[in-house]
Design a protein that fits this description.
223 residues, alpha+beta, Jelly Rolls, Arc Repressor Mutant, subunit A, 2 domains, four-stranded antiparallel beta sheet, 23% strand
Length: 223
């Protein structure tokens, strides 16, 4: 795989010419990595000096509680960037575990060397804009999750989550990128309780769903 070809459409490297991209990847010491299903990319507290551009597979960010229960912090899918905010922080400490859900492949990119003084100014400026935009998008996603977890009660959390998804997709019909177990972890609720409540909401004519495809039928949920 040619790294430049694989990364040219990445949010971080978009709008760079082929020559500029090659220069940036050389400065950032880009290197490909492959992870097996269940393999750990990083443990909580680990130092991350490089972010990971995910090409294929999926990775979850998980925080473990004292009793062993897992909370899904974030789910990463192909085309997304893992650890950009961590590698760019002052501490560079990963706040959760990063685990491959399935065989996954991508490229590590060193954050600090990506913005080394030797990098031509026009490339650094383009990269800087792309990084700011990517971090802003991640910030909005986190605000949505905070809004969900702030709600008391299972139905309230489901309602706010589905409302956000409807707004973000610009439609009352949309697909989510999580299975029921991952969704229950994301919402911080019991899986069986989640399944029961979703079924009850469907009986009441508020929503409809099939696997990870949802339709919001209620104006109250759609907002």
């Amino acid at each position: 795989m040619q790294l430049a070809d694989a990364l040219k459409d990445s949010r971080i490297f978009q709008n760079l010419s082929a020559e500029q991209l090659e220069t940036a990847l050389g400065a950032a010491r880009a290197r490909e990595a492959v992870f097996a299903r269940g393999e750990t990319l990083a443990i909580a507290g680990a130092e991350l000096r490089a972010f990971f551009c995910l090409f294929s597979g999926s990775v979850q960010g998980v925080r473990y509680q004292a009793n062993g229960d897992a909370d899904l912090v974030q789910l990463f899918l192909p085309g997304e960037i893992i650890g950009l905010d961590i590698a760019g922080s002052s501490t560079k400490r990963c706040p959760f575990w990063l685990i491959a859900i399935e065989p996954s492949r991508g490229v590590y990119v060193d954050f600090d060397t990506l913005f080394s003084p030797e990098l031509p100014q026009e490339i650094a400026a383009a990269l800087g804009q792309n990084v700011i935009r990517a971090l802003a998008n991640d910030s909005i996603r986190r605000l949505h999750k905070i809004d969900v977890l702030y709600r008391k009660g299972l139905r309230a959390r489901i309602t706010v989550y589905l409302r956000h998804m409807s707004i973000m997709n610009g439609s009352r019909e949309f697909s989510i990128n999580m299975d029921r177990e991952q969704l229950s972890q994301y919402l911080g609720v019991n899986r069986s309780a989640l399944s029961h409540e979703l079924s009850q909401m469907r009986k009441e004519g508020l929503i409809d769903f099939h696997k990870n495809r949802f339709a919001v039928l209620s104006d109250e949920i759609a907002g």
